[in-house]
Amino acid sequence: MRLGFLGTGWIGRNRMEALIAAGGNAVAICDPDPHMSREALALAPEANLVGSLDEMLALKLDGIVVATPSALHAVQCVTAFEAGAAVFCQKPLGRNAAEVAAVLDAARRSDRVLGVDLSYRHTAAMQAMRERVSNGDLGRIFAADLVFHNAYGPQSGWFWDRELSGGGCLIDLGVHLVDLALWLLDFPDVKSAQATLMRDGRMASPGEVEDYAVAELVLETGAVVRLACSWNLNAGRDAIIGASFFGTSAGAEMRNENGSFFDFSADLLRGRERERISSPPDEWGGRAAVTWLQSLKNGGGYAASTQGLLQSAHALDTLYASARRESIEQPAERTSRPGNGLVEAQDRSRPGEIQAAHMQSASNAEEWAAPAGN
Questions:
Q1: Which member of 58, 231, 268, 281 has the greatest number of CB atoms within 10 A?
Q2: Interstrand relation of 141-150 and 224-230 (parallel, antiparallel or unpaired)
Q3: Which range marks the domain in which residue 36 is found?
Q4: Pairing relation of β-strands 86-89 and 212-219?
């Protein structure tokens, strides 16, 4: 399969490496940062360096891997589908449900497979839990608690601009939590949703992106799902990541080991007892991308795409709407369509810091597995 890689920051290169190892042919690379392009070219010396998505699509590739800032995801995916290419995109697929719906419509019309890097679904720990839930071992699930607290925060300034990012830690990290909750339960409808968004230890103001969020979803099944996520938290470790589900017969819990971003275990819970059902090590990072590539090789069309994307996007929209209703001033809605290509955005790592002129392309929390500057 002939692939193009649009955005080659850390996460883009990591997925690129996984796809090459799985038999993908890296034909084209596009990134506005020459250093990122050189790093990617070292993985695929025969690839073509191109200056835009249009140049990439002119090569008639089988698939495009999108790892650019969130504001560009929807329009770049739609453009790729309209050109006849399949797409694997970093999360979030869009900044809101309308953008996600537009991408899904383009994928459906082109009958090309869409993959989204909701990578935690593919950990051995979550797969083991899903198997137990599917087997009925937990009984009727009535509650779930999911957390993703990060001791680090985004270095690229576009994360802190709601127009470019779609939101803060809730859409960046909470998208994984919402996805895991709905995916594990086979995507039930969400009856109600409520969120509280904070910034620097206070309620977030209109227009600000949040660095701490707590939320609750009530599902049509009657289950209550509680979520919490954050950036730059005084967490006492690199990260606190966990997903606990409680049923009438048993519970199940996934958690990261020793603050790791990468090592996860899972236990089945009965009363005071726990049974280990999955342990690290587990090389899961590129598994979502490789699954997409395998579908592409097998001739899979739209029907083989990542499931549940619109349901999760609607849930996130509802959570953000609920939080903004609490604000005195309603933020103005912006409907501008992001332009084609890899655009520049000013870097505002935190308010008050000196603005830089360039942004990083990669857009995943896994980039923060080491302190800024490492």
A1: 231
A2: parallel
A3: 2-119+286-308
A4: unpaired
Residues 134 and 88 in one domain: no
Query: For residue 58, which of 8, 111, 4 has the smallest C-alpha distance?
Result: 4
Q: Is residue 250 within 8 Å of 133, Cβ to Cβ?
A: no
Given a contact cutoff of 8 angstroms between Cβ atoms, the answer to whether 52 and 28 are in contact is no
- In angstroms, the CA 30 to CA 36 distance is 9
Report mean pLDDT in 10-residue bins for the chain, 374 residues: 97 97 98 96 97 97 97 98 98 98 98 98 98 98 98 93 95 98 98 97 94 98 98 98 98 98 98 98 97 97 97 98 69 36 34 29 34 27
DSSP state of 347: B
pTM of the model as a whole: 0.87
Q: For the chain, what is the largest distance between any 2 Cα atoms, rounded to a whole number of angstroms?
A: 60
Buried-exposed string 14-24: b where 16+ CB fall within 10 A, e elsewhere: bbbbbbbebeb
28 and 106 share one domain = yes
Length of the chain: 374
DSSP 120: G
